[in-house]
Amino acid sequence: SGNNFEIIIIDDGSPDGTQEIAEQLEKIYGADKILLRPRARKLGLGTAYIHGMKHATGNFIVIMDADLSHHPKFIPEFIRKQKEGNFDIVSGTRYTGNGGVYGWDLKRKLISRGANFITQVLLRPGASDLTGSFRLYRKEVLQKLMEKCVSKGYVFQMEMIVRARQLGYTIGEVPISFVDRVYGESKLGGNEIVSFLKGLLTLFATT
């Protein structure tokens, strides 16, 4: 690609062999390109971001899921978009242009669309996809946002965008295809939906 990069893999003791595969990749590509930074147990997405940032040496950070539901082919488009508008954040969107979701049942699609719609109505965030996590951040912007964000779970990604708008950061969007994981199961259940609604109301009251 011509871009200088490193891949930081944060594995929270997952039982699916992520760490073993990462170790093999590290041997193939070298420890300067593949940085495996495991943690003993699951400590949450926000703390994984902070843990990863400590080891990042670049000026920009791309956050993505490691199960290939986020395809790396979109990364050059994120970089191109960032350079084009000098954006602080470039967010992958499933809901504009030729973006889309593959492998979800109707219930999951309705939950995602519904969450997005309610959030758009209440918070007017100026971005089309608030619950996705495939994003490029300017490193210092990600650090500032992590200091401000208090949410956990499903609401966390949404708060990142809402706080970014609140702080005056610029956001570009790139349409992406999201493909549901082939192995493992989604963790979205009744408790997550209740906590999403609570988090949404908290954001509505404080932004």
UniProtKB/TrEMBL annotation:
Entry keyword annotation includes Magnesium: yes
Pathway: Protein modification; protein glycosylation
UniProt protein name: Dolichol-phosphate mannosyltransferase subunit 1
Origin superkingdom: Eukaryota
Cofactor(s) demanded: Mg(2+); Mn(2+); Ca(2+)
Sorted UniProt keywords: Endoplasmic reticulum, Glycosyltransferase, Magnesium, Manganese, Metal-binding, Transferase
Subunit structure, as described in the record: Component of the dolichol-phosphate mannose (DPM) synthase complex.
Family: Belongs to the glycosyltransferase 2 family.
Domain Glycosyltransferase 2-like: 3-145
GO biological processes: dolichol-linked oligosaccharide biosynthetic process; GPI anchor biosynthetic process; protein O-linked glycosylation via mannose
GO-annotated cellular components: endoplasmic reticulum membrane
EC numbers on record: 2.4.1.83
Catalysed conversion reaction: a di-trans,poly-cis-dolichyl phosphate + GDP-alpha-D-mannose = a di-trans,poly-cis-dolichyl beta-D-mannosyl phosphate + GDP
Pfam families named in the record: Glycos_transf_2 (PF00535)
UniProt main location, coarse: endoplasmic reticulum
Functional description taken from the UniProt entry: Transfers mannose from GDP-mannose to dolichol monophosphate to form dolichol phosphate mannose (Dol-P-Man) which is the mannosyl donor in pathways leading to N-glycosylation, glycosyl phosphatidylinositol membrane anchoring, and O-mannosylation of proteins; catalytic subunit of the dolichol-phosphate mannose (DPM) synthase complex.
Compartment(s) of residence: Endoplasmic reticulum
Transmembrane portions of the chain: none
Gene Ontology terms for molecular function: dolichyl-phosphate beta-D-mannosyltransferase activity; metal ion binding
Organism classification: Eukaryota, Metazoa, Chordata, Craniata, Vertebrata
Source organism of this protein record: Merops nubicus (Northern carmine bee-eater)
